[in-house]
């Protein structure tokens, strides 16, 4: 699995372009904004987008999803259904963060723990890890040992839990039981900041000791 990280929005949110190099099929994860920048990268890579995947319902991760899905005529899937209230409140989120106005939408499909999402020959396993938001998911490719985690885990930090229905203890439990149990060489692609690894976070993340 090839992953190209595309920082978008004033929050420098890491949109990810997942590419199956065997089939040229691809998916866009968390297109938070800067839609033309994302589409330019898709064109440069000359890949076929077959879906948009959302890790959670915060505006900086979903703000460009509808425009991209409409432009490329693909479906939006994810996150887990407990984030419905976040997607229903995009207008309020837009006002709160000073973003251009975004209208609410629903994905074509919610994703659940253990579900497999296919991108070409890539099989992404859905990990439901609430705490930052109640419906937050991560996407694991066991074969290439890579995991896209949204705002669950960062290099040296963990996601905020002071949002509505956030839960710090639940977040830490989920990270320890579902992420830190992965092989140490697994690369971690967070929603903000640099790529890290499971081994590095187990060794030095102060929130996980």
Major sheet: arrangement of strands: 6-7-8-9-12-13
The CATH H-level superfamily is Ribonuclease Z/Hydroxyacylglutathione hydrolase-like
What order do the helices and strands follow?
Answer: EEEHEHHEHHEEEEEEHEEH
Do you know the CATH architecture? Answer: 4-Layer Sandwich
Number of strands: 13
Q: Indicate how many domains the architecture comprises.
A: 1
Radius of gyration: 16 Å
How many distinct helices?
Answer: 7
Helix content, binned percent: 25-40%
Average the pLDDT over all residues and give the rounded result: 98
Overview of the structural elements:
This protein is globular. The protein is built from seven helices and 13 strands. The chain has helices at residues 35-45, 59-62, 65-72, 84-87, 90-97, 168-179, 198-204; strands at 2-8, 13-19, 25-29, 48-53, 75-77, 116-119, 122-128, 137-141, 146-150, 153-154, 157-158, 187-190, 196-197. It is 26% helix and 28% strand. With 209 residues, the chain is α+β, with helices and mostly antiparallel strands. The strands form three sheets. The chain has a six-stranded mixed sheet with strand order 6-7-8-9-12-13. It has a single domain, classed as Metallo-beta-lactamase, Chain A (4-Layer Sandwich), CATH 3.60.15.10. The two termini are 31 Å apart.
